[in-house]
Design a protein that fits this description.
8 helices; 5-stranded antiparallel β-sheet; rRNA-binding; Structural Genomics Hypothetical 15.5 Kd Protein In mrcA-pckA Intergenic Region, Chain A; Ribosomal_uS4; Ribosomal Protein S4 Delta 41, Chain A, domain 1; Small ribosomal subunit protein uS4
Length: 205
């Protein structure tokens, strides 16, 4: 098991949820946290800890985004017009690694990030190797021709673990998809409850 995979599963156990809804998640068998103190009796959480947990879940879900970058998404969400919580979700869903994961070109957000970094993805016909690149409405995301028959791509496309959300259109025969519109919280197929309103409260304290 790679260090990346171990870290991913630790996120699940630390948060006590099956963050990506995967059958392999160890939290399905062990709902307590990792480490020697993982089974300690839990105390009633404070408002701060509830808000912090909401932030950690959202950060972790999108491939464990760094705090500095995640804070930038919050600042941009505040700057934009409309509901800040919805703006934050839309920004996260526009990350190229999130889009590649949603379109089922990769089996996990971590795999999507690596897939993009290795140059397997194009946006509007141009190679993009930056996982945090933000796509726009109407952008066409495609697996490069030489990469379309890779086993990891075919396995992801055939996976029944999740469905492609309504704000995207995907043709898995051509390994091509389009980001069609703004992603709203109610549209996003999270396996666990996400509470971006608590994340906003955490940063606006």
């Amino acid at each position: 098991m790679s260090k990346r995979l171990e870290s991913k599963y630790k996120i699940n156990r630390r948060l006590g949820v099956n963050l990506w809804g995967r059958a392999k998640s160890p939290v399905n068998k062990r709902e307590y946290g990792p480490g020697q103190h993982g089974q300690r009796r839990k105390q009633k959480p404070s408002d701060f800890s509830i808000q912090l947990m909401a932030k950690q879940k959202l950060k972790g879900y999108y491939g464990n985004i760094g705090e500095k970058q995640f804070r930038k998404y919050y600042d941009e969400a505040v700057r934009r017009k409309g509901d800040t919580s919805e703006n934050l979700i839309d920004l996260l869903e526009r990350r190229l690694d999130a889009v590649v994961y949603r379109m089922k070109f990769a089996i996990t957000p971590f795999a999507a990030r690596q897939f993009i970094s290795h140059g397997h993805i194009t946006v509007n016909g141009r190679k993009v190797n930056i996982p945090s690149y933000l796509v726009r409405d109407g952008d066409v995301i495609e697996v490069r021709e030489k990469s379309k028959q890779l086993a990891i791509v075919l396995d992801a496309a055939q996976s029944g673990e999740r469905d492609v959300p309504e704000y995207m259109e995907v043709d898995h025969r051509q390994m091509k998809g389009t980001f069609t519109r703004t992603a709203k919280l109610s549209d996003v197929p999270y396996p666990v409850q996400m509470e971006p309103n608590l994340v906003i409260e955490f940063y606006s304290r």
